[in-house]
Amino acid sequence: MKLPSSRNPAKAAAQWPRKIRLGRVTVSIYKRQTPTGGAAFMVANYADGKRRFDCYATEADALDAANRLARQLSERDVVAAAMTNEQAADYAAAVQTLAPFKLSLPSVASTVAECLNLVGGLTDLHAAAKFYTARRKRTVAKPVSAVVAELLAVKEARGASARYLQDLRHRLNRFADTFHKDACNVTTAEIQEWLDSQKLKPQSYQNFRRVIHLLFEFAVARGYASDNPVAVVESVEVRAGDVDIFTPMEINRLLAAASPDFLPCLALGAFAGLRSAEIERLEWSDIDLAGRHITVGADKAKTASRRVVPICNNLAAWLTAYAEKQGNVWPGGHDEFYEAQQETAAATEVKADPENGIKGEKPVKWKANALRHSYASYRFAQTGDAGRVAGELGNSAAVVHRHYRELVKPADAERWFAVKPEGPANLLALPAAANAANA
Q: Which CATH code is given to the segment(s) 144-238?
């Protein structure tokens, strides 16, 4: 291995490109000026059959790399010179096989070696290639936002409720606002990172995970994704402690502060356990005060299945003044319904008036879904029958056990279902047999 010699050392130092020779192998090193006025050193590399330039910051680094490359290529020449006729025939056959792809044997060998390091043996490499090919063939690139729009259109065409569609639209559009890419390219890690970044409470986290899982199930079924990346996204436990409920005193204050239009909605949520969306769709004709039951039709229920909910004594008392009403129970729109919740909670505040002996009270804090949670908790404590309560709520006994068991005591339940209007003149005359609804 020799560097070019010269009788004039200064002239030799200026000679470029420099050559590293080892046997029949020669490796050239070039010096180039950089835009900043410095120098870069490049080694001409033919190891893969095509020339490329490997760039180095210093001359010493370039010389080391050139020496290593020269040794590698020289050893390859030695092996080639010692090849048997059979080995030479194998080489020629390999080159002939690769000819249609315009690839050199060294570059292919290098790539295959890297793949084998990843998957193991040739059988695994072949299986991985088949899987990749099948995945590419059965997926159609479609942006996440477009898949969301298509899912919503399909759900609407199939008769999904307005409330359900609104929930899907809210959660999925929020997801699509972040993922500006094709559905087939969204990974589990990206979804997990996104969910974690939202700082959601356990129940909200699970709700988002559920609808995103639905989105990718839809994408897989229509060929927009090969698998569902949400399947292995972390699922979190919603503990009973995460369920908020109102106390009997709080619901009494809320009912006293409610407007005439909103009061029956409040009572139906607190003493019949109806979902907010069900109350918004409920009509007065669905409420049979004489028969002491409420029919939540399949077109009004979240689960799209009909159920009958009993009217307990105190709920009947709150609804008596509305016995002749017709049309929708809630006369306003969806946004107004939630505004009414906040307005009612704010109206429970009591301003202090020391001169008249009135103590100030902070307003009752509105708790999301707490009306239904309260009914479920107090009703389960009252009956001890998870199956019965589940039937009234329109969910499963397992859900009742998981979320509402032992949240309150029977004595608390007795106080809850004793909350009635102050004016006895408004109470409905009920047959004795009807008292069974409270049992």
A: 1.10.150.130
